[in-house]
Structure formats: C-alpha cells, structure tokens
Design goal:
Layout lengths: L7 H14 L4 H17 L4 H8 L3 H17 L8 H6 L6 H18 L3 H23 L10
C-alpha cells in the first residue's frame, strides 16, 4: 500500500480526468441541467413547486445549478451556495417528491449520457444529495425535526 499523499490540485485533476473519460464535462453538465429542468417544469407535481419558488428567475437558477453540478461532478469549486437552507424554506414539498425528482433525473441522464458510466456517476451523487436534503428537511424517522 502506498502512503503517498496527493495535493488538492492533483485530486481535482484526477476527478476531472475520470469524469472526462466517461464523457462528463461542462458542456454535458449544461445539457443535463437544461434538459432536466425543462422536464421538471413540465412535470405536473414538481413543476408548480419550482415555478412558485423560482418564478421569473430561471436563468439565474439554471446558472446556479450548472455551477453546483460542476462542483459535484468535476470538483470544480465554482459553487458556494447553501442548498440545505434553500430547500428547508420550501413549502409544499413532501418526501415522496424526491422519488419523482430522482426518476426524472435518471431519465434525463439515460436520454442524454454519452456513456452508461456517466449515468452511474451522476446518479450516485444525486441519490446522496437527495438523501441529505430529505434528512435536513424531514429528519430521520422517529427523531424530531428542527424547521426553524
């Protein structure tokens, strides 16, 4: 076993090289975000929730989501938002909405991904994010939730 320690820049380069090898780059992230949110807006249960919150700010939201997913998938470090508080303030969201969100996200990836590995790569991260947001919003079954 090697005890080698790599720098943050080396780690970022390795993540980006792996992502590129399976077809993930900023152009693909842009395609995923644009396609996914077009699907969300058309979805009868999710669309109204997003429209109520985002309203006329879709261009800003899409740009933010592109930075978010670049940071998540490419370790780009270009997103500095706080997704948990942003989601905790939403009204009308239920835990089952996340199943619809994940299904739409998976379908978007399956329709657009350059490789099957890209679907897996994105979905692993999307599932962890969804789980984290659900725990923050709804707590762990049996534990009280602080929604202040």
């Amino acid at each position: 076993m090697s005890d080698a320690i790599i720098s943050a820049n080396e780690r970022r380069a390795a993540i980006q090289a792996h992502a590129a090898a399976i077809g993930i780059d900023e152009d693909y992230i842009s395609l995923v975000v644009d396609t996914f949110y077009a699907n969300v807006r058309a979805q009868p249960l999710l669309g109204p929730i997003f429209e109520r919150e985002i309203g006329a700010g879709w261009d800003r939201h899409l740009a933010t989501m592109k930075r978010f997913w670049a940071s998540v998938t490419l370790n780009a470090g270009v997103y500095s938002g706080k997704p948990v508080p942003a989601h905790q303030k939403l009204s009308g969201v239920e835990p089952w909405h996340f199943k619809i969100w994940l299904a739409l996200f998976r379908q978007t990836l399956e329709d657009t991904a350059p490789t099957p590995e890209a679907v897996v790569y994105f979905m692993e991260r999307a599932e962890r994010i969804a789980e984290s947001l659900q725990l923050a919003m709804f707590g762990f079954p049996g534990l009280p939730v602080n929604r202040s």
